[in-house]
Amino acid sequence: MDPCKVDLGVDLGKALAKRSNSVAVSPPRRLTHTDTLGNFSDVSNSLRAKLVDDVHEDAVSPVELDHGQTGHVYALEAGGQKIAVFKPVDGEKFHRKSLDAGKGAVREEAVYLVDRLTGSQAGVPVTSRASIQVDGHTLEGSVQAFVMDVQGFIEDYGIPRKLEEAVAFIPQADAESIALLDMRVFNMDRHPGNLLLLKKAKPHGLGPIDHGCCLPPWWCLGEAIFEAWISWPQLQTPPSSDAFSLARAAHAKLALTCRMVAEAGLDPSAVVTLRLCTIFVYIGIVEMAIPIGKLAALMLRDDCADPQELSWLEERVLAAAKEHGGKLSVQANDRGDPEVRIEDFGDALEVEPFIQDLELRFRQDLKAFRQDTPESHGEDAPIQSW
Ligand SMILES: Nc1ncnc2c1ncn2[C@@H]1O[C@H](COP(=O)(O)OP(=O)(O)OP(=O)(O)O)[C@@H](O)[C@H]1O
Ligand SMILES: [Mg+2]
């Protein structure tokens, strides 16, 4: 068995058959993530192990929640309380050309780790992977702690247009943390149904869920979706000191984060995406102080253009990759929109020179972007030296 997986020991088929009764589960099996990565790994492992232990308390009964892109989504209830969500990878129905079905659980766990290693600022619930027996067959999927105190989905609420009111509704640091997470993991599914509004009283909190469509391979950067937050007033002003700290921490922890997500099973081509997006965020925020909404827009294609054009980010990635062995071409797809194609799954790319080249391009071109759009940042926001 893959050492990164957890066997919950739940026979979901039998459990569903006996839905009205509680379901006996076998004794918990411990997480067996290898522990070679220091204290952060310890903390993260213990939280994920605790989630799995909790799922094994007394009795667990699965209740079907939804039938979305993932297929069936189940709430695991114990002691009369929903404690976790189980999403089988079997039957994933993602419509992202860049993502292999069946890898959603790895990406869910990887996004949790990305957030966890910078102090869980975005609040991604503890997420691990699980194998479950269903009618004698093994179902694999992700298991995620159930988010409590949910008021609804962001799509059901209007975020005030005035900055002061928006900040009273959702604190600036909370809005920024979600945005910076989505940018770092190149989220292709942050529509307002995948962001929960928490706490009855204002200011509310945010609960990010559904991270199976993040971290595509580095040559597939045409489908980012930041619809939930891209126009929020909190993100149109210069980044706060909290955003600076978070972008700096993400950069400082990048090597460790890459090792941990690779250990969790994320493909090397997706680890490159995490690297380049984290560096982009670091330069854009820490060095250039560009408002997060403006910086994020450089990662998006213009949906209104027909045909679309490559995004600012895609153009730089393509140019740098071609300089360093990437066998890429741009071809029009059925709708006439540009699609980056690769010949060899990226094997020929010289990764380190590519990243270094890209870093220089980001620095140079973001500086030009900042100068060309002076209204996009505070006049006196410093450009930091590096
Ligand atoms: N950690 C969680 N805590 C509480 N509720 C959750 C959690 N994860 C998922 N849900 C609930 O389950 C629903 C489906 O989950 P999710 O969005 O992750 O799955 P999906 O099948 O990929 O979704 P979609 O409907 O967007 O295609 C969510 O809309 C939400 O109501
Ligand atoms: Mg969803």
- Oligomer state equals single chain
How much is the radius of gyration in Å? 21 Å
Bound molecules: adenosine-5'-triphosphate, magnesium ion
Indicate the mean pLDDT: 84
Which sequence of SSEs, written as H and E, runs from N to C?
EHHEEEHEEEHHEEHHHHHEEH
Total beta strand runs: 11
Contiguous low-pLDDT stretches (5 residues minimum) are 1-39
Protein name: Phosphatidylinositol 4-kinase gamma 5
Keywords: ATP-binding, Kinase, Nucleotide-binding, Transferase
Family: Belongs to the PI3/PI4-kinase family. Type II PI4K subfamily.
GO molecular function: ATP binding; kinase activity
Descriptive overview:
This protein has helices at residues 12-17, 39-55, 104-116, 163-169, 172-184, 241-252, 254-263, 268-287, 292-297, 312-323, 351-372, and strands at residues 6-11, 61-68, 71-78, 81-88, 127-134, 137-145, 150-153, 195-198, 205-208, 328-332, 338-342. It is α+β, with helices and mostly antiparallel strands and 386 residues long. The protein folds into 2 domains: 6-145, no CATH class; 150-376. A 6-stranded mixed beta sheet has the order 1-5-6-4-3-2. A hairpin with a 6-residue loop joins strand 8 (195-198) and strand 9 (205-208). Helix 5 packs parallel to helix 6 (241-252) and helix 10 (312-323) runs antiparallel to helix 11. The longest helix has 22 residues, at 351-372. The protein is globular. The model is unreliable at 1-39 (pLDDT under 50). The structure holds adenosine-5'-triphosphate and magnesium ion (MG). Adenosine-5'-triphosphate is lined by residues 65-66, 68-70, 73, 85, 125, 144, 146-147, 193-194, 209-210, 212.
